[in-house]
Amino acid sequence: MPARSIGSATISFGLVSVPVSLFSTAESSAAISFNMLDKKTGTRLKQQYVVPADNNRIVEKDEIAKGYEFSKGQYVVFSPEELKALDEKATNSIDIAEFVPLDKIDRVYLDKAYFLGPDKGGERAYHLLAKALQETGRAALGQYAARGKQNLVLVRPTGDGVLVMEQLHYANELKSAAEVPIPETTVKDTELKLARQLIEQTATDEFHPEKYHDQVRDRVLQAIQSKVDGQEITAEPTAQAPTKIIDLMEALKASLARGSDDAEAASGAKAPKKKARKAS
């Protein structure tokens, strides 16, 4: 079944326009959510807003206003019309400002991503842009207005020639890595050598995300089905914490040894059994 488009836009750079359709890159339904219930009756609870300073008076939806706290306890109030006037007008245009080397974009800026497909009449320009970006190793950086906000976006090609629009954080939205406390220390050459060996031991040249799945989600779904079937859920025994190896060198050596043992066991299990030769 073909994917369903969630919107349309036009990639614009210079005098070139590429009409595209937007597609989700992931299923939001993957998240499992629980409802708040009353323990006594088992019915779903309703959220309400109250005024603590007025004997917890319940405020109805049409009585709620939005305000910004500019000083402690002081607010400027905006009407729905005023807020709507402040919203960025959706232009459905992905305005490209510059083309930057893809490997220069730090992945920490990534917020979310969308697949882009060619819209009617844009097939040739779409393939041209994707191929040009692939050959130059660059990505298109620009802005895209949607849902009342102007987003910073990056358009890049995948290995299959499909364009992806990544929504990025603005620079002022990110915290500085300099805020992370990292005390100065020295790394010994022998430790570095062992660490590199450990990395190479389990290194791969390709990305295979299908090898991994959310075990917590599977466990929650299984528990939900057990509840539906009327079964009781018992807590799993707590796994014993592994013994800590304080010495870094010993930890690296132990990790390398364990990796070697696993590799030998795997190769032994896969190796075909040799047939015994018949006596001549």
Mean pLDDT: 85
N→C terminal distance:
62 Å
Main sheet, how many strands, which sense, barrel? 7 strands, mixed, barrel
Tell me the strand percentage band: 25-35%
Question: What global shape is seen?
Answer: extended
Keywords:
280 residues, Ku70, Chain: A, Domain 2, 11 strands, 5 helices, alpha+beta
Describe the structure.
The structure is a single chain. With 280 residues, the protein is an alpha+beta fold. It has a domain at 7-26 and 87-173: Ku70, Chain: A, Domain 2. Helix content is 25%, strand content 27%. The chain is built from five helices and eleven strands; from the N terminus they run ββββββαββαβββααα. The protein has helices at residues 80-86, 123-136, 189-201, 215-228, 248-270; strands at 7-13, 16-24, 49-51, 57-59, 66-71, 74-78, 93-101, 110-118, 138-146, 149-157, 163-168. The strands form three sheets. Strands 1-2-8-11-10-9-7 form a seven-stranded mixed barrel. A hairpin with a 5-residue loop joins strand 10 and strand 11 (163-168). Helix 3 (189-201) runs parallel beside helix 5. The longest helix is centred in the last third of the chain and has 23 residues, at 248-270. The radius of gyration is 28 Å and the shape is extended. The relative contact order is 0.11.
List the helices and strands and how they pair.
Blueprint: E1 7-13, E2 16-24, E3 49-51, E4 57-59, E5 66-71, E6 74-78, H1 80-86, E7 93-101, E8 110-118, H2 123-136, E9 138-146, E10 149-157, E11 163-168, H3 189-201, H4 215-228, H5 248-270
Brief description of this entry?
About 25% of the residues lie in helices and about 25% in strands. The protein is an alpha+beta fold.
